[in-house]
Every structure is written in structure tokens, then in C-alpha cells.
Design a protein that fits this description.
- With 171 residues, the protein is an all-alpha fold.
- It has 11 helices and no strands.
- α6 packs parallel to α8 (109-116) and α8 packs antiparallel against α9 (119-127).
- The longest helix is centred in the N-terminal third of the chain and has 10 residues, at 52-61.
- The radius of gyration is 18 Å and the shape is elongated.
């Protein structure tokens, strides 16, 4: 590990090895403790599993909280897609870009929370200043997503917080 650190080598993973990382077979904790950067896909796995201890190690090791997984999904979106409220709060407290857009769907984290029907996470994003009038790459607004998911409480919350019902969907 000292050689990896000395030569500024980053540790990467691929989907086939993620199970090994999660099981503890791979020495991710030791890499992080030694200050060896681990790639965003590992950080995304840590977020998905709500692994608080390794999350803190990634932060200490200097991982970019606004990095994206290999699909172009920002870490805040990863947390929203997995209903990881604790991770959402931690990322926001660390200054994660609340309006970052994923490359795969063109969604913000707020949109992902709406799609999951997670009213608590929707509220968290709105209270932290998420733009309630964004449009995804399919031309759908936050409000259209909430209507499409049959989430009247989320629709009401969005409108109360300034979502414009007159924005035309391009969908």
C-alpha cells in the first residue's frame, strides 16, 4: 500500500468487484486509512449501503463529493436513488451541488427523490434550496414527474415552494 501511495496510484473498482468491496474482502478501509484515493464508484457503493464509517474515511481521504459514478450520476443523486436520507444530509452538509444533473437521465437529486416518492427527501432538497423548476433531458419538470408518479403531497409541496405549473413539458 505504501508503494501505491508513493506513486499516487488510485484504486478503482468495477461492477464485478463491488460485491468483494462490500463484503470486506478488498482492503478499502486500509487504503483509505493510508490516504490512498479510491475512485468514485467505490464512494457510490459506500453511499448506497449507507456505510457511515467508510463515508467518513472517503471524505478524510479527499474524495470529491461532487464526483459522479461511471454512469455520470452525481453522488447526491446516488443517495436520492437509494433513499439514503442520512447520506443526503451528510453530502448537503459538506456542500454537495444540490442542482447537479445526472448524465444518464438528466435528473437532479430532487427529481430522483420525486421519482422514488420519498416526500422526506424531497422536503430536504427543497429546504436546502433545490431548484423546483428544473427540466430533465426528456423535457419533464419536477411537477410533471410528481404528477406522473401520482404523488399529490409532493405536487402540493412543490407548488407551495414555487414550482411553476405553467411551465410546458416537452415530453
Amino acid at each position: 500500500m505504501e508503494i501505491l501511495k508513493r506513486h499516487n496510484i488510485h484504486v478503482a473498482s468495477n461492477p464485478a468487484s463491488n460485491a468483494k468491496l462490500a463484503s470486506g474482502i478488498a482492503p478499502i478501509s486500509r487504503y483509505l486509512e493510508k490516504g490512498i484515493p479510491v475512485c468514485p464508484s467505490c464512494f457510490a457503493l459506500c453511499i448506497e449501503e449507507e456505510n457511515q464509517k467508510d463515508f467518513d474515511r472517503f471524505i478524510k481521504a479527499g474524495i470529491d463529493i461532487n464526483s459522479s459514478d461511471p454512469n455520470g450520476t452525481p453522488m447526491l443523486n446516488v443517495a436520492a436513488r437509494n433513499n439514503c436520507t442520512k447520506m443526503i444530509n451528510k453530502l448537503l452538509d459538506l456542500g454537495a451541488d444540490i442542482n447537479a444533473i445526472s448524465k444518464d437521465r438528466g435528473y437532479t437529486a430532487l427529481m430522483d427523490a420525486i421519482l422514488r416518492g420519498n416526500e422526506k427527501n424531497v422536503s430536504i432538497f427543497i429546504e436546502h434550496g433545490a431548484d423546483v423548476n428544473t427540466i430533465n433531458k426528456d423535457g419533464q419538470t419536477n411537477l410533471i414527474l410528481a404528477v406522473g408518479e401520482n404523488k399529490p403531497h409532493i405536487c402540493s409541496l412543490l407548488v407551495k415552494k414555487g414550482a411553476n405549473p405553467d411551465i410546458k413539458s416537452e415530453f
